[in-house]
Specification:
Radius of gyration: 25 Å
Distance between the termini: 93 Å
Structural class: alpha+beta
Number of strands: 11
Shape: globular
Oligomer: single chain
CATH superfamily of the largest domain: Cytochrome P450
Largest sheet: 4 strands, mixed
Number of domains: 2
Length: 511
């Protein structure tokens, strides 16, 4: 009845608003009747952003639920001008195509480089001509037998002289220990020694604060948020230097300060003919006598990338491994039984450690670590760009400007990929009837990436994980603190938001 009394200008404003509200209601009502509520609804202007914001607190579960309903693939469309036209997938056939078969069409891309700007032009950001020589150089260094032997020696020493004494002290004092923090400190110490030739000794009874390690954690959290907010939003925050972008800027400053000081020190030592220790660190292998700015930047980008790969991923993997053992005591016992089958070395304080070459022969320990990495991959999603129009094996057409986001976390929980028991922690899935390890293609088990960019440090990471896991499991029993909440942190590395709080107790070992 009021319509005749509205002016033409008022009608021009109100009628579109009413029609838009009716469209929202109609679209939501029918979508909610035909689809799972986990599947995002596309709204005009704002796209699917409301669903993302609403489910951000449980991001990985939401993505998994969506992909389960939509058949391993889903096109997420963000708000207008957000730059968020993303194909979410955990389809192994798509992954093989993108990461291997048509590798050149799916680079990291300029947008990836901008999101991960803190890593500069390191091997993890670089594409094509910049990437290949870096990979060849890194592969030569990492695959060198003396270097691998040094890694094993260093890891064993750190486990014996840092991890076990720290846990024994905590057990004797009845302390609650954050196992995730212990493993991140372990891998920070070993990685810093391997990369820079410096042992920061942050895994000690005093648990000293290490600005570089804290800065890396803050940086990884900010990089996650850059993936889930519209590009213009985080760029504005960066210009204004507020919020998460201010945290990243501070982290960047602290990381650069540490790297610049270390590079300067190593240059001086090298000119004096001094080496870092039993084996040259990776930084010394890259150092050029020229003191040019571009060389320093290359060294900075390379070493920070190596630190990210070596510290965060391995420490995260170990934390999830022990949480899974706490929920599956029969698996823990099988690991202990297998360790009893190999030689043991007793330290001066009665602790047991194992030789890396003996641990390498153990099938069940390897299978258990693989299963932990399958369910909780340290890098829970991979990001790719698109150069040319292409049709993926699933039938989806991708075009330039789109992004492809592969959820490795979700893939582990898909019945079509891993069977009806996909969500179970079941190391036996990795063992053949003849007792040997079962091979699974890397495009199905992506914890170490797949294709030409497969992880160069896979063997090093497994050596470190086996040494730490075996020693801790064999020497200590542990219980997760009652009521402690385990959930993933908002980070590009799958860390636990609240850590892994446990109480340790020394085992009675029959020597």
């Amino acid at each position: 009845m009021a319509w005749p009394y509205l002016s033409p200008l008022e009608l021009l404003f109100y009628v579109p608003c009413i029609l838009l509200c009716l469209y929202y209601y109609h679209h939501y009502f029918f979508s909610s009747k035909t689809k799972s509520r986990s599947v995002p609804v596309y709204w005009p202007v704002v796209g699917m952003m409301p669903s993302l914001i609403y489910n951000l607190h449980d991001f990985h579960t939401w993505i998994t639920d969506t992909l389960q309903v939509t058949g391993l693939n889903f096109l997420f469309r963000g708000s207008w001008y957000s730059g968020m036209n993303i194909l979410l997938t955990c389809d192994p056939s798509n992954i093989q195509h993108v990461f291997t078969s048509n590798f050149k069409n799916f680079p990291k891309g300029d947008e990836f480089l901008e999101i991960f700007d803190i890593l500069g032009n390191s091997i993890f950001n670089a594409d094509d001509d910049m990437w290949r020589p870096q990979r060849v150089k890194a592969q030569q260094l990492i695959s060198h037998p003396p270097f691998r032997a040094y890694v094993a020696q260093l890891t064993r020493e750190k486990v014996e002289k840092a991890v076990l004494p720290f846990l024994a002290h905590g057990a004797n004092q009845g302390h609650i220990i954050d196992l995730q923090d212990v493993f991140l400190r372990l891998t920070f110490d070993t990685t810093t020694k391997l990369v820079f030739g410096v042992d920061p000794k942050c895994l000690s009874i005093e648990l000293p604060t290490v600005p570089f390690a804290r800065a890396m954690d803050n940086a990884m959290s900010t990089l996650f948020y850059r993936h889930v907010v519209p590009i213009p939003v985080w760029k504005i925050l960066r210009i204004l230097n507020i919020g998460t972008e201010k945290k990243l800027a501070n982290a960047w400053r602290d990381m650069d300060h540490f790297v610049e000081e270390t590079i300067h020190k190593r240059r001086a030592e090298k000119k004096e003919g001094k080496e870092a220790g039993d084996f040259p660190d990776l930084l010394s292998s890259y150092i050029d006598d020229e003191d040019a700015d571009e060389v320093n930047k290359f060294l900075r980008d390379t070493t920070i990338g190596l630190m990210l790969a070596g510290r965060d991923t391995t420490g995260s993997g170990l934390a999830w491994f022990f949480w899974l053992l706490s929920q599956n005591r029969h698996v823990e016992q099988k690991v202990i039984d297998e360790l009893n089958s190999i030689p043991r070395n007793v330290t001066h304080d009665g602790m047991v450690i194992f030789n890396p070459e003996d641990l390498a022969k153990l099938v069940y320990l390897h299978a258990t670590l693989n299963e932990a990495l399958r369910l909780f991959p340290p890098v829970p999603f991979e990001h790719k760009g698109v150069i040319k129009v292409d049709t993926l094996p699933s039938g989806f057409v991708v075009t330039p400007g789109m992004k492809i986001l592969v959820s490795t976390y979700s893939m582990a929980r898909m019945e079509g990929v891993w069977g009806k028991d996909c969500s179970e922690f079941k190391p036996e899935r990795w063992i053949l009837d003849n007792g040997k390890l079962k091979y699974e293609p890397s495009y199905k088990f992506m914890s170490f990436n797949t294709g030409p960019r497969s992880c160069l440090g896979k063997d090093i990471a497994l050596t470190q994980m086996k040494a730490a896991a075996a020693a801790v499991v064999y020497n200590f029993s542990f219980e997760v603190v009652k009521g402690h909440i385990i959930k993933p942190k908002h980070s590009i590395i799958l860390q636990m938001k609240n850590g892994l709080m446990v109480k340790m107790k020394k085992r009675n070992i029959m020597l």
